[in-house]
Amino acid sequence: MSQNTGKYIIIAGLVLVIFGAAVYLLGDKLNWLGKLPGDIRVEKDNFKFFFPITTMIIVSVVINLIIVIIRKILG
User: Fold this and answer.
1) What's the gap between Cα 42 and its chain centre?
2) Could you say which of 23, 41, 61, 66 is the most buried, measured as most Cβ atoms within 10 Å of its Cβ?
3) Which residues touch 74 (CB under 8 Å, ≥6 apart)?
4) CA 61 → CA 48, 55, 58, distances in Å?
């Protein structure tokens, strides 16, 4: 393994810790996440289906931005 792999693992761990702390501390303020317009929710008598497409797109864009920023910082 190269040194860059170790750096990426450390940074990924730090990002996960920061994200986990944010969810833990701000969990009650993030209740809108998963209830955005475009999230598909079907509820019948014996059936529930939930597909948070808009939330997944937003989370994907944010994660990609974080990865781009980290790559620019590490060079």
Assistant:
1) 23
2) 66
3) 4, 7, 11
4) 27, 10, 5
Strand-pair category, 40-43 with 48-51 = antiparallel
Q: Do residues 53 and 34 touch, judged by C-beta distance below 8 A? A: no
Q: In sequence order, which residues have a C-beta less than 8 Å from that of residue 38 and are 6 or more positions away? A: 53, 54
pTM: 0.63
Model pLDDT, residue 26: 84
**48-61 residue pLDDT tens:** 999 999 989 998 99
pLDDT bin (cut points 50, 70, 90) of residue 15 is: confident
Which amino acid, 67? I
What is the gyration radius of the CA atoms in the chain, in angstroms? Answer: 17
Helix (H) or strand (E) holding 32: none
